Amino acid sequence: MTVTTIPPRSGTAFRLAKGECLTVIDPQGEQVADLVVFNAQDIREAISSGRSLDYASKLYLTTGDLIYSNRSNVVLTIVEDTVGRHDFLLTPCSRDTFRIIYHDEHPHQGCFGNLEAALAPYGVASDAIPVAFNCFMNVVIAPATGALTVEAPLSRAGDYVKFCAEMDLIVGLTACSALQSNNYSFKPIEYRID
Amino acid sequence: MTVTTIPPRSGTAFRLAKGECLTVIDPQGEQVADLVVFNAQDIREAISSGRSLDYASKLYLTTGDLIYSNRSNVVLTIVEDTVGRHDFLLTPCSRDTFRIIYHDEHPHQGCFGNLEAALAPYGVASDAIPVAFNCFMNVVIAPATGALTVEAPLSRAGDYVKFCAEMDLIVGLTACSALQSNNYSFKPIEYRID
Hints:
The structure is a homodimer of 194-residue chains. Chain A is mainly β.
């Protein structure tokens, strides 16, 4: 089975047919991958954090959980997950993230810019890129205050999460570009379709 | 100053000019109001939970906090808040919510249907209705598991939250239609613009 590598701080997009499964692999450990999907027949239908978290009644989706679209259709089922801690709250990192949070003077385009470039050939406008399912991202919540802290991912080398497509999809996937999310080093992400 | 009432289980939409402020009032207590906003000059720019939570690095936005758009512009500033507990995670309740979570055979159209109807005259398509800022909604998170529980709002009669517009906006606002979110009774919401 072919494994494709996404180089550090980059992204890609591809089609995933209904019934196919996508395995997102963290080959070195502690590396986040932002995942977004769109209905291949109608890209106005997209992954929805709000609907998925609501219907699951929990923040941390893992094996057996369903990911819904903004039309309340199931887009992906999580069928295997060796980590169990991913984020579905925060926007893909972007020039704005680096400007607002990191105060960078010459910000990298981030996952958002990488997704924008990769998804443009499929007709997805940048305004339509939603909150991503951030594989391996470890956001810790202080219960009383709701303060969010981005900690090192819990993933170790070779950990993975496998999603099966419940409709024909356009997928956007990155090797995340934000220092804090990846324990301060940028590593590749691998994926496999079967 | 004119106070407008949104009847139980309904919604409305209106323009809010840059510099104007919107006060959302819970006249009887324990009633949620879902709020969405769009740039009046370009409705592809909309309120973004993912960017707002990311830039604030916390879940519970309150007085002094900023609400961002999907283009990372500030759309609203929260200038007063007598409650301090609102939700910015979950999708507006909808026919799908009532079908999937409540197993209703004849589901109400919910906040989503009410927003859809109210925003249609402004050209907002239903697919473009994002995660709302759910005023007074009290979602409790179990820190270890991430389990989400919708509890009774902490708002008492007369509590309010005041937002000021940082750009010309189209606003969608509801008196929420979900039993659990409103401690099992449907009440009106009031609002004032000044």
